[in-house]
Write a structure and sequence with these properties.
With about 325 residues, this protein is mostly helical. The protein has two domains: about 80 residues, no CATH class; about 230 residues. The protein contains twelve helices and no strands. The longest helix is centred in the last third of the chain and has 41 residues.
Length: about 325
């Protein structure tokens, strides 16, 4: 009797698979051309049992799941068409570091504004905006460096896509300039979002938004190629965050900033209406950008795993395939 270890569905290992003849005998197959065997590592999608050596028309001996179910879930029919990723560990790390650093930068902007809103309701909450702004600038620099790790992940990548990503990296320059000038204003005015009546801070926010749009659009061509390598994302098995959605959310917040710039000095009810509308648009747009960046971390991890451990092709796991 041949015993084999149960595998983690994403893991590797296990005892040697039984020979092809014994597998055919155990499955009661006729050995015709359609009755091919799994020769590569293939953990059962349900229980993790090592299915190597079994007929593709059989079932998992452990849980009874048809082998075809596991094959459809794990095998990528387009795997042979993908060119190898250069420096896969660097690419996988960059895919996680970029959204993580970006999220840190965004949260560093959120915290003083949340404290400012709470103070407007009489809550004695003090948060120093300047150190958080400095953290946001540093995190933006880290995010820019992480994007450089994705500038040419495959040797066959079209050069125009690499140039687009370079534009995205350079878009961090206006982002950091805007953050620095906003920090200077916040140093002098503790409640800039609600009480600052000059337009320069909102103009810097517009520059910040323009830089973010440049980052998202510049990264998008390379990101689409990397997403295509992830079977789960490509087939819609799991939801994914699109960079175009992030662009739209940033533009919504930018419209709020533009309204604030144009209506900040209007008298009476007109000025108040502009202020309320702009505040709503800024909060909604910024909120969706924040949520989207969290989703980008999840997607980056999934794509990184597909880069480090690519899905097998049919030929690599089926005898005679």
């Amino acid at each position: 009797m041949v015993t084999r270890e149960r595998l983690n569905p994403e893991g590797s290992g296990g005892a040697p698979a039984p020979s092809g003849d014994r597998a055919r005998e155990a499955q009661g197959t006729s050995g015709d051309q359609l009755d091919r065997l799994l020769t590569g590592l293939m953990p059962c999608v349900r229980c993790g049992y090592d299915l190597r050596g079994l007929s593709i028309r059989g079932v998992c001996p452990e849980c009874g799941t048809p082998l075809r179910t596991t094959i459809l879930y794990r095998v990528d029919p387009e795997a042979d068409a993908f060119k190898p990723v250069r420096f896969p560990k660097l690419v996988a790390a960059s895919l996680v570091v970029w959204p993580s650093a970006s999220l840190l930068a965004i949260l560093s902007l959120w915290l003083p504004r949340i404290a400012e809103l709470l103070r407007s309701f009489g809550l004695p909450i003090e948060v120093s905006a300047v150190p958080l702004m400095e953290i946001s600038i540093g995190a933006s620099a880290v995010a820019a460096i992480a994007l450089l790790g994705l500038i040419r992940p495959m040797g066959t990548l079209a050069w125009w896509k690499s140039w687009c990503l370079l534009v995205g990296v350079l878009s961090y320059i206006p982002i950091m300039i805007a953050l620095w000038n906003m920090a200077l204003i916040d140093r002098a005015y503790p409640n800039p979002f609600l009480e600052y009546t000059r337009t320069d801070r909102w103009a810097w926010r517009l520059l910040l938004g323009a830089g973010m749009v440049g980052v998202f659009l510049g990264f998008r061509p390379v990101a689409r190629d990397l997403v295509h390598r992830c079977l789960a994302l490509r087939t819609g098995r799991v939801d994914r965050q699109t960079l175009l959605t992030m662009v739209v959310a940033t533009l919504v917040a930018g419209v709020g900033d533009a309204i604030r710039v144009s209506g900040v000095n209007l008298p009476g009810m007109g000025g108040e209406a502009f202020e309320i509308l702009s505040t709503i648009l800024i909060l909604v747009g910024s909120g969706f950008v924040t949520i989207g960046m969290v989703a980008c971390i999840v997607d980056g991890w999934r794509i990184g795993q597909s880069v480090l451990l690519p899905s097998p092709s049919p030929r690599s796991v089926i005898e005679g395939g």
